[in-house]
């Protein structure tokens, strides 16, 4: 276990968000960027999916979110060039989400796809315009409206990344006449 | 089950535990918008249009499949909810062809209606689409247009759970996910029975009936053609819905009048052929019972059911009556008896069927359905039935012709193929064929008059109905099933040897029978099915004759042409064989 080793740490199920975050070396401001996860939300650490009689009720596993978040942060940190690489990492993450999405739920299937296209367009330099706020709005929508943890975690994580690395997104050149999001 | 009390938009409501938020909201007059949800069919919560806010929950929840809980406080119309619904809809529209004006579902599309309801006037998003996906028009009955598919999953659910066919499934992941036959097969290459239940539940036009309207217009415009039309029993209680009438309202006379205005040379009734079916199928049953034939005998009126057996239970095809369906009997009689009677070259007769069913299009194209051509030894006579229109297509034709249907004065069918009985009328509802057969079989076997013609035990929407009818010392054991999942239940029992003492089993492919057919007006749901069935029995009760063997035109047909049920001409024209498909 340990952040420096790059191995995912084992988090006890009863661990609080604050405790887990500390274990993972994640600063509190990062968490505050996630809408809905503030001090009032700390008691949801360790929450697992609850299966309701009528629904696979999709409470987000915030512990899982923290772990994914940690992986991304680690990758960005190790790259050195945080501003640029955070956008690249996000692109790869969204590709991964698309590959894993079952395709049933619209926020996940189409929402993460449009976000992927948005971020890809930015990286390729083909985005017609770019507003981090629009991306964050879409991400928050995906984060609260998706059917299962995949979409919900993805949305929250993108919103978090835009919030923390806003400058990185703004450094990409935006084409005037290109088509895109 | 206990009760739970909650608050929805400030209104207190108490419901049975397990009730969804959607249903609880409906009880206090709050209609939460839905898209993928379909009662009794689909409650997967995939589209996320019905999301609501629940106090204490960090994320939005789908109202259609989240159970109401005690003390829950629900908000269905907050800025967050409205924004989420709108974004979801815009995302769908960003990958949906904007072809509303030319779409077959224009004016009756749930996506279109939802965009209007949610006041979506622009689509902020662009990007990749599925515009390049090809249409699948490989079957004679259905057209799949995957570009218009929103992956709601209703069709998959109805095909798997209600019809037990499983011809289509959700495949792929993420944006590449799509619904279609496995292994990229065309629909025609699958075990799809072409019942059209998928088209009936599709919220858009991703699956729709194949349109044969132009074929019929062309025949009507051809002076060489004598164009006759036959109308299936179930169409007369459904077509009016599309013109603002209450579901189940009988519009037989108006429909006949509309056909005359459309230019048909003769307007006939499939009910005539339904009476003929009873004569043949009833006689076949009596013969099987008397001579130790294969029992139980299954009905053969429904082409979806026939194809289902051919695919899934080919070893049991000898149990199926050899009688053609009324549609095909009509076609064969029209191009032989009727042609001869009025002195027209049968090759010039063009038979149009108006059916509640998409599978009838497939049936009409079966290679063996060319009895008239064989009878006259004339290859110029092509099919016994030349074109099949669903109820929905007929409505479109009437609208296209500018006919004010609601105000049409009623008219009467032409003779002789327009004369029918109440027994034929009830073919349109589940249990109807069996009831009609019982009315005739009883009198033929006992020689006595059946005073009470209504067999209530085989009526209604229960999936499997059974009855024992004493007839001339024999206890006739019968069963009625509708919906292919129920048919599968009957077939599995047959396979297990549990139906040995049964005599006659009616199977209708579609839930509710033909009144719920895949070609009927949309929406077709359970309350609508109930009303249509009521309409069918109203038609029956109002008829002068209520037993098929009393039909004077049928008597005349046997006297002048066929000679007797199961006779040589009957076998040539009215009976068929089946194809094991595996």
List the helices and strands and how they pair.
The complex is a heterodimer of chains A (181) and B (582).
Chain A: H1 17-24, H2 28-32, E1 50-51, E2 56-57, H3 62-79, H4 82-100, H5 106-124, H6 132-145, H7 149-164, H8 166-170
Antiparallel strand pairs in A: 1-2
Chain B: E1 3-8, E2 11-16, H1 21-27, E3 51-54, E4 61-62, E5 73-75, H2 79-94, H3 110-117, E6 142-144, H4 154-162, E7 169-171, E8 178-180, H5 197-201, E9 207-209, H6 213-220, E10 226-231, H7 252-262, E11 266-269, H8 270-291, E12 297-298, H9 303-312, H10 326-342, E13 349-355, H11 359-364, H12 371-376, E14 387-390, H13 391-400, H14 422-425, H15 432-446, E15 464-471, E16 474-482, H16 484-495, E17 504-508, H17 526-541, H18 552-562, H19 568-574
Parallel strand pairs in B: 1-5, 10-11, 10-13, 12-17, 13-14, 16-17
Antiparallel strand pairs in B: 1-2, 3-4, 3-5, 6-9, 7-8, 15-16
Helix pairs in contact in B: 8-10, 8-15
Summarize the model shown.
The complex is a heterodimer of chains A (181) and B (582). With 181 residues, chain A is mainly alpha-helical.
Class derived from helix and strand content of chain A: mainly alpha
> What's the helix count of chain A?
8
- Output mean pLDDT of chain A: 69
Overall tally of domains of chain A: 1
Structural class of chain B: alpha/beta
Number of helices of chain B: 19
CATH class of the largest domain in chain B: Alpha Beta
Q: What's the end-to-end separation of chain A, in Å?
A: 41 Å
CATH topology of the largest domain in chain B: Rossmann fold
Estimated helix fraction of chain A: 55-70%
Rg of chain B to the nearest angstrom? 25 Å
- Main β sheet profile of chain A: 2 strands, antiparallel
Radius of gyration of chain A: 16 Å
Write up this protein:
The complex is a heterodimer of chains A (181) and B (582). With 181 residues, chain A is mostly helical. Chain A has one domain. Chain A contains eight helices and two strands. Chain A has a two-stranded antiparallel sheet. In chain A, strand 1 and strand 2 form a beta hairpin. In chain A, helix 4 runs antiparallel to helix 7. Chain A is globular, with a radius of gyration of 16 Å. Chain B has three domains: 3-77, Ubiquitin-like (UB roll) (Roll); 94-209, Alpha-Beta Plaits, CATH 3.30.70.20; 214-574, 3-Layer(aba) Sandwich (Rossmann fold), CATH 3.40.50. Chain B has 582 residues and is an alpha/beta fold. In chain B, strands 2-1-5-3-4 form a five-stranded mixed β-sheet, sandwiched between helices. Helix content of chain B is 34%, strand content 13%. Chain A binds chain B through residues 36-37, 41, 44, 52-55, 57-60, 97-107, 109-114, 117, 138, 141, 143-147, 152, 179-181, and chain B through 18, 20, 43-48, 51, 58-62, 65-67, 80, 83-84, 87-88, 91-92, 94-95, 125-128, 150-151, 153, 170, 172-178.
